[in-house]
Amino acid sequence: MVRILPMASSIRPSLSSFRSAAAAGPPSRFAAPFASPSHNSCRPLSLLHLGSVPQSLSFGLKASKLLRGEGSSTAVSAAGNIAQASTAATEENVLEWVKKDKRRLLHVVYRVGDLDRTIKFYTECLGMKLLRKRDIPEERYTNAFLGYGPEDSHFVIELTYNYGVDKYDIGAGFGHFGIAVEDVTKTVDLIKAKGGKVTREPGPVKGGKTIIAFIEDPDGYKFELLERGPTPEPLCQVMLRVGDLERAINFYEKAYGMELLRTRDNPEYKYTIAMMGYGPEDKSAVIELTYNYGVSEYDKGNAYAQIAIGTDDVYKTAEAIRLSGGKITREPGPLPGINTKITACLDPDGWKTVFVDNIDFLKELE
């Protein structure tokens, strides 16, 4: 059904990432679950303050000293020029660093109402493996990680079950997950035999030739099955709807360092898609951004949570996100009681992403 080529880990952390690393604690959760389906956000975490003075502030202090020593308008002008030049240089350096940062999609996080039922469906119908499972009774939730290969080299799913919550609202903004298979028809037949729900029978994609089908898991999440040859990354897509495609593309390029792999406009069906990622679609997981003509906003529900991305420096990542107009929802730093450094943000459409320190992430898997 799903044939997987071996994939080497794309995380190659630099030695500089070891700064401030301490002994690894118990695994962290990048998306704190919530106890009630009426909430649309994850449990808040206390913000951690950075102790260093930003470079732009440092230049501002120098300018202030210059102004105190020189009362002339020339001094004021010189100080202003220094500050502006410093800010511009800092922004340019940060955004250029983003392009060189070692990033990849780590996992996608969402909530389910019956963990065992979902694990059974993913393993028996979709051919995934249960990679690990963790129960956090003091926080009243359980996580399960599933995928087609080890977490240090593959994009995987992180399921969250919150005690006592059996249903969530998926909303209209989340689209689907994509899974590459060698034979869509055989996969659909297997899913039907297991009692799965097929919402779109196998056939060519609208306006194209690729054979696809759509199914739903027990919680109503949609999966697109795409017919492809062997691939190292069968869990290959996450589709999210956006209200301004050009704005979203620009943000994902600048703030997230992703590459625009391709776009496709389909005026007959009034939508446009853009594929964004850190590598080619046939070898890497990608984000599929979809713009539906005339729709600028979507209800996101409370089921889908976020995507996690690896980075060599969460502090620089947060700075780049701010410079690109993103909203930081968790300041960069280690999680309380754990060594893993993260930062979290929202894109212009309100989709959440968590960036995780590469070195710390690998330590969690040990």
Automatic annotation (TrEMBL):
Q: In which pathway does it act?
A: Secondary metabolite metabolism; methylglyoxal degradation; (R)-lactate from methylglyoxal: step 1/2
Q: What Pfam families does UniProt report for this protein, alphabetically? A: Glyoxalase
| Keyword Ligase annotated | no
| Top-rank lineage group of the source organism | Eukaryota
Q: What is its EC number?
A: 4.4.1.5
The answer to whether the entry has keyword Transport is: no
Q: Which residues form a coiled coil?
A: none
SUPFAM superfamilies, alphabetically? Glyoxalase/Bleomycin resistance protein/Dihydroxybiphenyl dioxygenase
Q: Where is the VOC domain?
A: 104-228, 234-358
Keywords annotated in UniProt: Lyase, Metal-binding
> A Gene Ontology molecular-function term?
lyase activity
Q: Which enzyme class?
A: lyase
Show the Gene3D superfamilies listed in the entry: 2,3-Dihydroxybiphenyl 1,2-Dioxygenase, domain 1 (3.10.180.10)
Query: Reaction catalysed?
Result: (R)-S-lactoylglutathione = methylglyoxal + glutathione
Instruction: Tell me the protein family, please.
Output: Belongs to the glyoxalase I family.
Please identify the protein, giving its name as recorded: lactoylglutathione lyase
Per the UniProt entry, what species is this protein from, by scientific name?
Coffea arabica
